[in-house]
Design a protein that fits this description.
Number of strands: 13
Distance between the termini: 34 Å
Number of helices: 10
Order of helices and strands: EHEEHEHHEHEEHEEEHEEHEHH
Amino acid sequence: MQKLLITGVSGFLGWHLCQLAQQEWEVYGTYHTHFLAIPDIKIVKVDLTDFQELKGIFNDIKPDAVIHTAAQSQPNYCQLHPQESYTINVTTSCHIAGLCADNSLPLAFTSTDLVFDGLKAPYTEIDKVSPVNIYGEQKVKAEVGILKLYPQSAICRMPLMFGRETPTAKSFIQQFMQILQDGKELSLFIDEFRTPVSANTAAKGLLLALAKVNGIIHLGGKERISRYDFGKILVEVLQLPSDKLKSCLQADVKMAAPRPKDVSLDSSKAFALGYQPLSVREELDVLSKSNTSNK
């Protein structure tokens, strides 16, 4: 089997990606602070921001392909710690692209729908980027840097992702579920729109992009939905208390990082390659059944 190096396997997406990738690859995963064991995955502790350590990993493992998911992906954190987050989000990403270029290795990089300002959705791959926060700016800089160093890279713009919690990470729905189960009020935006997918679907998209894409690809879901409408489906499918679900506006919530209103992705290019996201309801149905069977 060929070797696939996945960075950031202690992250939410990285863990889900490992589960899927190991069916076809010998998977090596990196983590930095949150140790975890994943059956049949070789896990390596590495500080990706240390170029000598990073180069050492490439020399030791000699991967046949790389998927780079490691990032500081909390927009509010990036807004408050711009230099620290720049190192992992931009500098490290460019270093990885350079090492892949040196060895002609397929590379998939996880970017974000937050490279857009939210004023002209849905966005295609050729639409102009115009981020409104530092996290989005850093991902744009990483995209540009990677493609300059290694035009054959697959730049995968990821949407909002959800799914089963992993040993070291949760998605936003776990917090939603906890709040409602505790009988507290959950206020969700009616004026913020995304094209969400499950982490499992996103992982399938990344593996597809790794094999078939050079340049930018959008891996969004098939429906544009507000956080509040997502919450309504979540409540229904997982049979959570619905009386505490309330609607609010972005302007009602103070956050460090500005948020765009509508960064829905047009992912028809990926759909044509065989990327097949389920609807939000279908994704949550799958999750509900797996929760039941795990009990």
